[in-house]
């Protein structure tokens, strides 16, 4: 459970700001927001103010996961409201302060049930905030299905077909992964963008020409870059070459050492820069559960040594958290400011909420995570409410 003092003073902590890190500072939180940052420390403490000394820890903006299918045995497609609340609690223990429950292609009835549960949990969950929903499909390429169920894939002809994708309230963010080469794909991107959806390109074999058209129509992001798309070829650059060469396109990536090799992560950073990359978990219900066999999306998914596989041998999501991705990037020598940008700032910008969260600055929501010297979560703060880290 969290606790929510009227005000909170975090003392003697290393603070990861958007452009630099401050070795020792005090951070004063009042009414759920960052009121003051004192780089020299020595903030005075009022009588009604709780204080926590975090010497030796680094304070990051809370992580935001825009692509996660579940964790701790909970699948977002089958979850009820209480299941989603438990995921929010788990994610907070892993440093995540905001997330998008991500849905795989399914029947309209299953979509409606899942979104109804998400809507309920949005208003009642404690821990990581549910910020909206991410539909991974169903408008994607069956030849790049990955672990998605191709029997539910669709083409697009009329805007009324979008009625089969239930919406949340106006304050929620709606994200969708689309392959622009499907029948009606470009018009689909155009309609979605006009309705305020965040359109991401993924599970695709689109040509460079179609990718340019989809960008003009409003698709400016790419889903789990390099996965579920043809590999880069010197005579056929495809979606990977297009994403690498277009500086206006942002890409998210699964930094687990399985979906992308560590050297490829270094290359992506060199070519795209931290300012255009996002970390995601793409975690499935088996995340946090250890090795074993799990029934997910109507099939058996096996987890062995941190790698998932379905019966076809395809990787079926990950079993990492955003914390694991952050640790991996830090282990590669990426700076704290760049990691914070990829794990918090850029996701907030993609969702259009970077004016309220995603970085540590006075006036912003107190969505924060403190990592100790070993990279473990010392505590997570969501809107000023304190959650302890996991006991891992």
Please, could you describe this protein's structure?
This protein has 392 residues and is an alpha/beta fold. Helices cover 24% and strands 28% of the residues. The protein is built from eight helices and 22 strands. It has helices at residues 81-93, 108-124, 185-194, 208-217, 238-245, 262-272, 322-331, 336-351, and strands spanning 7-16, 21-30, 33-38, 49-53, 58-61, 63-68, 70-71, 74-75, 96-103, 129-130, 132-136, 173-178, 198-201, 221-222, 250-254, 277-280, 292-296, 299-304, 307-309, 368-371, 377-382, 385-388. Strands 6, 9, 10, 11, 12, 13, 14, 15 and 16 form a nine-stranded parallel beta sheet that branches. Strands 1, 2, 3, 4, 5, 20, 21 and 22 form an eight-stranded mixed beta sheet that branches. Strand 2 (21-30) and strand 3 form a beta hairpin. The radius of gyration is 20 Å and the shape is globular. It starts with 6 loop residues before the first strand and ends with a strand. The model has no long low-confidence stretch (mean pLDDT 94).
